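INPUT
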Amino acid sequence: MALVPTLTITDTTTFSDAINFSVTDSLSVEAPAQGLTLATITTADNQELVDEAVSGVFYFYAKNTDSTNFVILQTTASQQYARLSPGEFCFFPINDGNGLEARADTASCILEYAYWKKA
Amino acid sequence: MATTTASVSISSSDLNPGSNLSINASSTLMKAGLTTGLTQLRTGYESIATGTEFRLGNKATEMVGDAHNIASWVYICNKATDDTYYIDWGIHETMIGRLYAGDWMFIPWNASDDAAEIEIEAQVGAQTIEYAFFASDFVLPTASA
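OUTPUT
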């Protein structure tokens, strides 16, 4: 099965030269996968979205649908590495054994997410 | 006003039986407080040798002002063409993921302190990466006396 993620970044007002680039990829993926999901993320510290016990590389997408509060992404060992502000998204690969947890910082947020295992 | 817009689309024609997958999301990269756009940019194209963990980008102490732990974005793309090649990326000594040849990532980096530095290491062979950092307050290193 093929997954095609494309990132586009544009800016015509901030710098002397306009930014306008796009990068795309064609990923072969297999089970297990988590289809597009909406989940309430609370301020608790143990909300595992990707199981660290499942081997493989996972391509992870998430978007914080909350309009006020941000969501922290961290390993299952609680190493924080990303913060999704209201409305922001991310896409990145997670490796074997790290898993992924989410935690709302101030109040519960609705997180949209999905992941797919690299074939 | 600075307006850097990032958009992602994720599609598949054979992943969901009976329906195509089509995820689309877009956001403007903002400083902390979400009222002002990010205004600083670092981009690069680097060859990465195997056997060494490299720091990519600034340390937290090389950024000032707004809360850079919620106002810094990182884009990395592995430009290798051999699909057995990959780059391990992580935060300080914690490995997070693997970027195989052609893969890219885009995250709102939690640059909370110097121990939150982004580390990369090429595996299998030397590789080239393309990267960009969007932030609010980079600081140049102090020159030697």
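end of record. The longest strand of chain B covers residues 5-16.
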